[in-house]
Write a structure and sequence with these properties.
two-stranded parallel ribbon; mainly alpha; 2 strands
């Protein structure tokens, strides 16, 4: 089965996040994320006014419960080659 790391840019938009999580739930691929990725998603959801802190915290917990195998520690080498968003 294909294993995919979902970065913050695809977990931030609700429609895309819901679609990708539904496809993973249907076992069409295995998803992975790191705590750093989840932190970025939740921080941006709150900062951009999409969710309250409580709702973002609840979303993170639901995602972790639904996909307990998804949590990984992304190698720093991988972060270095992902240059699409310099996070300035």
């Amino acid at each position: 089965m294909v294993v995919v790391i979902l970065d913050a840019c695809v977990l931030f938009p609700m429609y895309l996040r819901d679609t990708l999580l539904s496809v993973a739930e249907a076992e069409l691929y295995e998803l992975r994320w790191s705590q750093k990725i989840l932190d970025e998603v939740m921080r941006n959801l709150v900062q951009k006014g999409k969710m309250s802190i409580q709702k973002a915290t609840n979303l993170e917990q639901v995602m972790k419960i639904a996909f307990p195998e998804a949590m990984v520690e992304a190698p720093i080498e991988l972060e270095r080659v992902m240059t699409n968003d310099p996070r300035i």
